[in-house]
Write a structure and sequence with these properties.
Helices cover 26% and strands 28% of the residues. The chain is α/β, with parallel strands linked by helices. Strands 3, 4, 5, 6, 7, 14 and 15 form a seven-stranded mixed sheet that branches. It has a six-stranded parallel sheet with strand order 10-9-8-11-12-13. Bound molecules: NADP nicotinamide-adenine-dinucleotide phosphate.
Amino acid sequence: MELASTMKAIRYYNHGGPDVLRLEEVPVPNTGEGEVLVSVHGVGVNPGDWQIRSGFAGDRFELPYIPGWDVSGVVVSVDDNVTGFRPGDMVFGMTANSGGCAEYVAVPARHLVLMPGSIDFVEAAALPQSGFTAWHALFVQGKLEAGQTVLINGAAGGVGHLALQLARWKGANVIGTASARNEPFLRELGVDKFVDYAAALPTGITQSVDVVLDTVGGDNGDWLLDTLKPGGRLIPIAWGRYSSEKAAKASISVQEVQYPPIAAAYLEKFARLVDTGLIKVAIDSVFPLEETAKAHEKSESRRVRGKIVIRVR
Ligand SMILES: NC(=O)c1ccc[n+]([C@@H]2O[C@H](COP(=O)([O-])OP(=O)(O)OC[C@H]3O[C@@H](n4cnc5c(N)ncnc54)[C@H](OP(=O)(O)O)[C@@H]3O)[C@@H](O)[C@H]2O)c1
């Protein structure tokens, strides 16, 4: 079947609120070297989407801009140099330069893997960036080992709920923070100690933690330093302020998450964990493409439990 030359996509021409997002008819992208054209079914929403839209990333991304980095869908065509994929394959992964909120997107083959049989397009689209961030922060930078204790600040969100399960899978003890309404959710995911961030800090966690993953950030990060053992590691994935004096005194390293571009090898590992039921992705809500603005608004509320996904088909 001949592919149409245009497609529906969400685009914006200026930074601003969710109202800048427009549903438009735009050209179907061409595939470049090493790329795969994917007919998009699901697009994962990340806070980065509305942060870029609001202008937090400045001029780094050219306008007009199609948001959406995490995608799942079906392969339509592959560049001559691509091996390992063919039309009709169900895939998921991450684009190199957003563009996911559209009927078609070109994705580097090295950022894609075949979808595991047991998960659907919505779950697959929810995984790439949040899972990669959690993995990298905990295991590569945090060097978390079995038997150690990790505190996940913001354990009910997109990154946090996957990090909680990855840490449990590794054999670590997990302390997770969230509001009281999320306690049953975190208990079901296997949290060892639940901390309601609106209540007083429970006793017994001072200097008991090996690694902190801070997904919340903000001005008041010093209490997280107090929970760490001397020599512990704090990995912020959101902007936060932590006393460098206090950290130095206890030989705590504070190192913002910094990761290489996503790789198929990681996606495959993660896909296996999900396929075998060791990790579950929680879906907060699903929106159709034309309601991408509502999906952004919901993400901006910072009250998401698990992940938001946009369903394109
Ligand atoms: N998603 C990614 O792949 C990624 C990658 C790199 C960096 N980041 C950054 O990391 C941060 C988190 O990302 P995310 O995708 O996990 O966000 P998210 O899904 O929007 O996080 C929402 C969660 O944050 C919790 N929360 C809000 N305030 C809290 C507080 N004071 N203490 C504890 N929990 C709190 C909420 O729990 P309650 O509803 O219970 O309050 C909610 O479950 C963002 O700043 C994002 O830009 C994300």
